[in-house]
Please model this.
Amino acid sequence: MLLPVDTPMLEFKYEHEWSGRMVVEARRTVRIPLEVPAERIDDLHATSHWYRYCQNRTATYCWPTRPTRPSDLTTNTREVERTLYDRLREETAGLHSNLVQKAIKDAVAAVSSCQTHWKNGDRISKPSFDARTDGSYAMTYDKRAATFQKYTVSLATVNGRVQCRYRLPTELAGTPYERYVLDRRWSFSTSKLVYDGEQFWLHAVLKRTYTDASTSSTPRSDTPEDLTRVLGVDVNVDGYTAVTSVGGFHGNADALTHRRQAYETLRAELQQTGTQSAHRRLQARRGVERRYYTQYCHDVANEIVADAVRVGATHVVFEDLTRIRDHISNRPKSQQWLFRQIQTYTAYKLAEHRIDVERVDPRETSIACSRTDCECSDDESRAGKEFRCVDCGYAVNADYNAAKNIGLRFLEASESIPTGHTCSSGRATSQLALMSGTLTPAGEFVSREWVSTDKPTASAVGR
Ligand SMILES: [Zn+2]
Model:
């Protein structure tokens, strides 16, 4: 049986080079089923035993017996490594040094995530990495603990290396495997080995770097006090989960829907089975799903934050979910939850950068033309993910159009509200951050805009 190679998730990371040029790093995760030689499966299981041992030792170290406030938790990876690494190397004799490091890192990240939840007022408990009832586990392999190749991967175990072939479909054309693994422009980076209880998968992370000298940005520290620079964000249930007014396309809502449906099917089956073991399996799976969605929301929030920091935004604007009566309250609870989590995590992460989060009434933001010299708002302008203004002919990706409208709506609203803080130089400057450049509500400066509908990778570098 051939298992499909999954739809890759889309991620972008923005960094500045010393020269001031913008470096955009794109990452894709491609899920590849592995053929593990039958006689070596136990070596991987044994490795995961010691990997979890390191994770649990780390969690115990980071988590005092009775923590009373978030800062009681230890979340500094370097400090934990300094204390635990040598000991764990001795205790786990045979576990690759880089697996020890990754296990420490995983556990510290889990504790750090708990700390975030705690600060947000959520109930938390010490992360546990004990064996799961369904036998599933995941280990992080970097390029020292694994050798990633085009058709095989060699993985370090407690009993030497194991070489695994990728289980590929006969027809490779058009698969993510062909587009990323076989394309020389993409290279492997730290990935995950995942065992789901039945099958081994490589969650291969492929990386590619773009450099664009023309993309300039203004760090927050350079932003004048009286400047309001807004990043608009549109959230969706299909296509990309979040689209920003600077052309950031984040998350993969379709893959998420697909995963949800698979889970619902399994749940229906297990509930019908009705046995105790089916019940236990369902409980375990529910936990896996919840963690997956939480992580997904964190990832999308991180990408939105990266966009905001990159363009020196002062405000990030979302749709006000409570006001989308005809829009969101009819939707499944899971989607409402997802949208709320993304907003909550983004707000929390932005606070560190002193960037505010605002919400606006989303009515008509998806059908109104986002050109500031056009008043048109018409259902006819939008067809799926394509927006073409029936009045002026402006054509862009529909979610991008909505993201711009969301940002503009906030600027329009704030124009009429007297600003509380100092603005001695006179009238405040308001801008909407766009793909490359900024736009004032009056429309004096129109930047080069992104017009493609399905090439977010290229757009991310301002082309
Ligand atoms: Zn128009």
